[in-house]
Amino acid sequence: MATPTLQVALDLLELDRAVEIADEAVRGGADWIEVGTPLIKSEGMRAVRVLRERFPGHEIVADMKIADTGAVEVEMAAKSGAGIVCILADADDTVIAEAVRSGRKYGVRIMADLINVLDPVSRSRELAGLGVDYINAHVGIDQQMIGRSSLDLLGRLAGEASVPIAVAGGLDAETASAAVAAGASIVIVGGNIIKAADVTGAAGRVREAIDRPEVLPREEESPDAVIRRLFDVVSAPNVTDAMHRQGAMAGLVSICGRVKAVGRAVTVRTLAGDWAKPVEAIDVAGPGDVLVISNDGRTDVAPWGELATHSAKNRGVAGIVIDGAVRDVDDIREMRFPVFSRATAPNAGDPKGLGEINAEIVCCGQTVRPGDWIIADESGVVVVPRERAYEVARRAMEVKKTEERIREEIRRGKTLSEVSELLKWEKRH
Predict the structure, then answer these.
(1) Of 30, 134, 179, 182, which has the maximum CB count within 10 A?
(2) Which part of the chain is the Orotidine 5'-phosphate decarboxylase domain (predicted)?
């Protein structure tokens, strides 16, 4: 195929939304419409039939991810209107062979998905020998969240496969362009199109990019830089959603209202408003760190005030979280510095030096270790375990993108209940 094919992956649960989004994507230049696996599991073959009827001039791809009963499932998708059916590349050879035979019988093509295949180069050669029509260099969403790349997988297949190669997994306009330059014939884009408020515009940007493929130099970012960049643009609610409603501290409020703090935790344990260790921790912290202070549950005496805030700001500290009280609130508000506390109190303790710095603490119901990531905004404060920070930051970004599309549909007149199909998805007892 001389002209790259843009396939939009409708990885949604709601068929009405999928049809609307597909229509917008086609207007932006999408060629093939993929009935994503979540949509097939939610709506069955009805989704394939409806999209076939709605888009008679476009190829319908049924992402069945077939692992068994290859002939039966290919027949089912073909009779429903699919022109291409996806099978798992690591299915047994007998399953692959039966799927291919069924595809020939019913006039559909077979795409083999390399997700989780340990030796993709060798398996691609075997799949071509078994008669599949396309190889999909696919890195799944959960693998993407920990940093695996579909472009890296594609690079391993360059020049090795004798059938056209598709590529899927977290692609945007820039990486889609690079994928075509690296040899992909079919570019599959899901979230970066279907989660956009302007789906037509997002599809158009990918279409333009793959029609003019180029490999742009990729700037290398450290893991910490990626984590901070992503946490800077998502909200604390986005982060708790990404963690399945975990990690949120209880009872904290933002002293300065609409401010935000993101950074690694420097932890402090103190007692009864003793402000020695909290102030000493300012000198321990580096630029961009967040001080997290446990005050032994006391809210009648403050281990933090305006002078400490001024000192922390000068040091480059990103913010302060206090399981306790803060004082000098009027001065702190003038600074617009991110301080989050459970209470305010005018009383200060004495600098006795009790407590410790950079030990594991419990702050507002959450365990915090030195180096854990803190995301704090007007909605609250969330702690992310340091070993999961990259993954959670990526997942939080996906949550944000999903909300952007839902917000657009609400703006157009739908209610949140309608968009989410709440009655359909209420838990059955």
Answers:
(1) 179
(2) 5-206
